[in-house]
Give the backbone structure.
Amino acid sequence: MINLGKKVIYQIYPKSFYDSNGDGIGDLRGIIQKIDYIKKLHVDMIWFNPFFVSPQHDNGYDVADYCKIDPRFGSMQDFEELVAKLKEINVGVMLDMVLNHCSTEHKWFKKALAGDPKYRKFFYLRKAKADGSLPTNWRSKFGGPAWAKFGNTDYYYLHLYDPSQADLDWHNPEVRKAVFAVVNFWRNKGVQGFRFDVINVTGKAKKLLDATDPTTEKSLYTDTPVVHQYLKELNAASFGQDPDSITVGEMSSTSIANSIAYSKPDEHELSMVFSFHHLKVDYRDGNKWTKEPVDFMKLKAIFTAWQEKMDQGGGWNALFWNNHDQSVALNRFGDPGKYRLQSAEMLATAIQLMRGTPYIYMGEELGMIDPAYTSIKDYVDVETLNAYHELRKQGLSAAAAFDIIHAKSRDNARTPMHWDSGKYAGFSQVKPWLMPTNQDEINVAAELKHGEIFNYYQKLIKLRKTEELISDGHIKMFLQKDPQVLAYERFLDNKTEKLLVFANFYGQEHTVTLPKQYQEQAGTVLISNYHKKDFTLTAALKLVPYEALAIKI
Ligand code: NOJ
């Protein structure tokens, strides 16, 4: 069986990786051209965000044909070549399966609109309530109501996301059969990795009811017991037949108990889960569109619970700070200025040495930071633009609304990869679909020549493959009350060796008092962002700004 603890996954946002044909949009041939770069990292698999046929209302998460490559990104031949070239360097492919909803341009939705009874049953079509109001009071996750008029009929269709993304009714076995076939289509092309987009919202209640309170609305369609049944079916009908497959479910507002069940091998559901609680510690009252400092104690409590309880329950976490939906972690949890290098390496150490499978988002290995945009016109993301208008409607000034967008927009992560310091960051010959801004200092060419972060990532990846404590060890947090340092121990059953990891999340020096059992132990430094040499631990351990240290005792 695959040892998930030895795997590292790299995420590529194809639209922004490399433009090979000069249209301002990244493409599959662009990725092929950059394989030598990818090879240097020694990752095991690449998760690609969707490049299927799509009108791109939500950047490809609105799929109009699951089994065709969008010509913007290339052809099926390009894809096959990409898979083959990656295989030559032992890198697998993970595709993004957006099966909770499809584009309203998909033939299923079009047939439903044309009145075909089979396809009408693919969607949640409901009439207005007797008083004329929408079928339920649910809100779309991108703002506004979750229902839109179904053509020229008396019906509305459900869309938990953009109106161009119609939710598929998984209660209908025909829907499940159709989406499982999509997974098998790609398996037949040699794909062994699958990321399932918002898969835990596929189990809406049979009877859709109004939420009595907005804070409990999500529970009406999230993590319901039937999702486990669907995942078991999906597993048996597709990737579960391949012992080398790797799968991850993107779990919206999930719980630890459910995540254990989603990812425990005996349950035959998925290999691991993405959960997001640790990335909501700079939200005010659970609202993303606010600007708050990180609540570090909350972050620690969340890591403690998710790491220790998933370990005890036999579940498996995907480990990550960044992805295409998050503004850059370095801006949120580190210091993108004075301590950019140190804090980038500290964050990487803190997350990658935990128990789970690390995911590295393209550019993270360079210490890329949020773009320095100055106007709302610089942004294109649908969620961002909706949020901006919503904030303005709530009475915020243009400057105040912009300030929040600037800190939280998903476009922060989606800017083109910085290959060099050129006008378009070496990403394209022409003006890209989204502009790069701070490529002067931060880019691949400079990083490979005299940078440190890339090498540090290489080292972390190597450690995961060579150190059993990292790949297979249990985890226990310590220094729980310390307001500045995240600290944990990795250990194996029946072995005395331990790995201690320390990460100072602040720009101030800080001294911690070590628990008795670690004192006077001779330590071997596995990695240190301040080039520390082996030393014997004493009662006090001083950590300089954003210092990270992994020491084996
Ligand atoms: C999660 C994806 O990561 C995000 O980019 C997308 O907008 C939503 N799911 C809807 O598909």
About this structure: Residues 296-313 form the longest helix (18 residues). Residues 58, 61, 98, 161, 197-198, 250, 324-325 surround 1-deoxynojirimycin (CB under 6 Å). The chain has four domains: 7-98+318-371+415-466, 107-167, 173-316, 470-552.
